[in-house]
Each structure stands twice: as structure tokens, then as C-alpha cells.
Write a structure and sequence with these properties.
- A hairpin with a 5-residue loop joins strand 2 (about 50) and strand 3 (about 60).
- This protein is mostly beta strands.
- It has one helix at about 110-120, and strands spanning about 30, 50, 60, 85-90, 105-110, 140, 150, 155-165, 175-180.
């Protein structure tokens, strides 16, 4: 969107290939706004302003301070804007020591899958593990001593964390933990 003109120059849905904007006038300031982010990625919170000179050098500016954002500047008529994946951190800890323990088999299910399994079998823990859309990987793992587990690109939704096998010497957690991943 060109600043001061309120006219939209271009709009698109991002994909696997870079998008080309036709009609950028050199040395005019434009604003790039992300309306929605891909599922599992954090939305660009602030819009950015940018200018391109006649040689294709792109300069970006913070819209609040008007300061240059040097890590987003581009060359050769390119501006690369990336989305960071959401990161959800899980820890399986001992109730006695509070330390992260190994050997718990864990999985994440959507609330919808959990509720469907509960209706079908009487036990929501029989739910299907969620599959990350971009990687195709099931969200399930075995806990490790002293180490948290990070799941990247878990889309905003309601979920349950389910323990399927308890660590040796520990009682299995029968109550699954409900949690929400938000878009931010």
C-alpha cells in the first residue's frame, strides 16, 4: 500500500515461490502488511515501510520510529520477509525433584481428536497424534533427562498433551493436559 495514497498496489497469498510486485515507483515509500500468517507461524506483528531506489536497493523502515530496519534491507529488487514458526516447549518433570526425566512417551492431539476418541472409546487418550502440516511429522516423542522438547510450527488451536507410557518407576499420568497455542 503506498503511504498517503491508501491505494493497494498489490495483494497476494504467499506460496513456495517469491512474489513479484509490478508497479513499484522508485524512491516512493510503500507499506507491507501481513493480514494472516501461515498456520503454525507467527504473524508479522508490525507492518513495515519500504522504498526501492532506481538500482533495486530496498530499504525498510520501522513505522513507529521511522528508523531503518537494516536486517530486512534487500538488493537486486528483492525484499525477503520471513515468518518465524511458533515454538511450543514441553517438559516432563518429576513431582518430587522438579527435574526433567527420561522415558515418558508423549503425544499431542487436537481437542477435536481427543473428544472424538473419548466419544468412541471412552478414553480421550486414544486420540490420534497431531501431524505438523509442513513437515508431515507426528507430534510424539520420548522425554529425555534434563531436556525440554520443542515442537515447531504447531498451528494455533486447542490441544491435549497425552502420556502414553510412563517412565520406569513412575505412575502413568492419566489426566491429559489441555493447552492452547495462540497465533502469537
Amino acid at each position: 500500500e503506498q503511504i498517503g495514497n491508501n491505494g493497494i498496489v498489490d495483494s497476494w497469498v504467499s506460496g513456495d515461490e517469491p512474489h513479484t510486485i509490478i508497479g513499484i515507483v522508485p524512491n516512493h515509500r510503500y507499506r507491507l502488511t501481513e493480514e494472516t500468517s501461515p498456520k503454525g507461524f507467527v504473524r508479522m506483528v508490525n507492518s513495515i515501510d519500504f522504498e526501492m531506489d532506481v538500482n533495486g536497493k530496498v530499504t525498510t523502515y520501522d513505522i513507529g520510529t521511522d528508523n531503518e530496519i537494516t536486517d530486512l534491507n534487500g538488493t537486486d529488487y528483492h525484499l525477503l520477509v520471513t515468518n518465524a514458526p511458533t515454538k511450543t516447549i514441553f517438559s516432563k518433570t518429576s513431582a518430587v525433584s522438579g527435574e526433567e526425566i527420561e522415558g515418558a512417551h508423549l503425544k499431542v492431539c487436537t481437542k477435536e481428536s481427543y473428544d472424538a476418541a473419548k466419544a468412541a472409546t471412552g478414553d480421550g487418550n486414544n486420540c490420534e497424534s497431531f501431524v505438523i502440516p509442513y513437515s508431515g511429522e507426528k507430534v510424539e516423542w520420548v522425554s529425555e533427562t534434563g531436556k525440554s522438547h520443542i515442537v515447531s510450527a504447531l498451528p494455533a488451536d486447542d490441544y491435549y498433551l497425552v502420556e502414553t507410557i510412563a517412565p520406569e518407576g513412575y505412575a502413568k499420568q492419566t489426566n491429559s493436559a489441555f493447552f492452547v497455542v495462540k497465533t502469537d
